[in-house]
Amino acid sequence: MSEEVLVTDPDTLRYLYANGSAVRSLGYTLEQLRTMTPMDVTHDPYRMRFDNHVRKLREGAPYVVFEGVRKRITGDTCPMEARWQLVSSFGRPVILSVVQDITQRKEIERMKNEFVSVVSHELRTPLISIHGAVKLLEGGAAGVLPEPATRLVALAARNSERLRVIVDDILDLEKIASGRIEFNIESLDASAALGRAAQAYETMVRTAGVELTIEPHDALQLKADAQRLDQVLANLVSNALKFAPQGSRILLEASREGSGVRLQVTDHGAGIPEAFRARFFRRFAQADMNTSRPKGGSGLGLSIAKQMIEQMGGSIGYSSEPGRTCFHVVLPAVP
């Protein structure tokens, strides 16, 4: 199938041009498309998400690539991938968009995810039993163990818990990919969300010897699923703790950003290696930060966080330099 090419006004997001392939695929005439925006032909009503793509282009990104669900005039839908690039046309900036139907790719991904899900479910049940039994031993259910046995049981408990988290992460990814994960979008207080993230890691913060601070800010309300937002923020704080040097500070902040609320987590670790950044939000991605502290983790947390935030109509990103890394999440603000 030929690629669909569309040209969009970066200010209004209205279409200025569509090639024959795009016209045939969508079913609208060129005149009709010139009165429409990407929100009219996708299952994505959030203007803010498209504005974020434009912002990235204006800030110097050579292009942005994103996936969505294309909606035709007949009501039929199909998964699509779009590549946006900011170019000049007759002296004015426009967005050149190349769109591909990725139905076949998504079907292959669905089959793969289904297989992984079945395997993960089969692993989870015995794993919970093993972890529970080990924790009982660790708690003295079989009496006082010799010191060598105590160390081995503690090692088994740590690693069975780590494996349980990995299996749960894989199941979360499969639920997101299959559209079976549910979101209860409601009005949430930004300060309370940051507070819960900080409270969840109080013990780890003390153990790591770092300071975790919430920057004071005005009352801000955002729209999100409380449980999923807590999961994302917990992942960001956990990552910051892994790389923050002893004696440093991790800062949690909230601020208004356009039509959204920005939540960010800043640490003062080594920074993200340049060579790793292109695959940062991919599954199982982990960077070698050349530090002595064991990092652990599955490499799935940020991939899950990105997909969850996007499902809630927001965006996630980061900035990094030696000695400072800042992760931010932007979610729709309550009007």
UniProtKB/TrEMBL annotation:
<feature type="domain" description="Histidine kinase">
    <location>
        <begin position="118"/>
        <end position="335"/>
    </location>
</feature>
<keyword id="KW-0902">Two-component regulatory system</keyword>
<dbReference type="Pfam" id="PF02518">
    <property type="entry name" value="HATPase_c"/>
</dbReference>
<protein>
    <recommendedName>
        <fullName>histidine kinase</fullName>
        <ecNumber>2.7.13.3</ecNumber>
    </recommendedName>
</protein>
<keyword id="KW-0808">Transferase</keyword>
<dbReference type="Pfam" id="PF00512">
    <property type="entry name" value="HisKA"/>
</dbReference>
<dbReference type="InterPro" id="IPR005467">
    <property type="entry name" value="His_kinase_dom"/>
</dbReference>
<dbReference type="GO" id="GO:0000155">
    <property type="term" value="F:phosphorelay sensor kinase activity"/>
</dbReference>
<dbReference type="Pfam" id="PF08448">
    <property type="entry name" value="PAS_4"/>
</dbReference>
<dbReference type="InterPro" id="IPR003661">
    <property type="entry name" value="HisK_dim/P_dom"/>
</dbReference>
<dbReference type="InterPro" id="IPR013656">
    <property type="entry name" value="PAS_4"/>
</dbReference>
<keyword id="KW-0597">Phosphoprotein</keyword>
<dbReference type="InterPro" id="IPR050736">
    <property type="entry name" value="Sensor_HK_Regulatory"/>
</dbReference>
<dbReference type="InterPro" id="IPR036890">
    <property type="entry name" value="HATPase_C_sf"/>
</dbReference>
<dbReference type="InterPro" id="IPR035965">
    <property type="entry name" value="PAS-like_dom_sf"/>
</dbReference>
<dbReference type="InterPro" id="IPR000014">
    <property type="entry name" value="PAS"/>
</dbReference>
<keyword id="KW-0418">Kinase</keyword>
<dbReference type="GO" id="GO:0005886">
    <property type="term" value="C:plasma membrane"/>
</dbReference>
<dbReference type="InterPro" id="IPR003594">
    <property type="entry name" value="HATPase_dom"/>
</dbReference>
<dbReference type="InterPro" id="IPR004358">
    <property type="entry name" value="Sig_transdc_His_kin-like_C"/>
</dbReference>
<dbReference type="InterPro" id="IPR036097">
    <property type="entry name" value="HisK_dim/P_sf"/>
</dbReference>
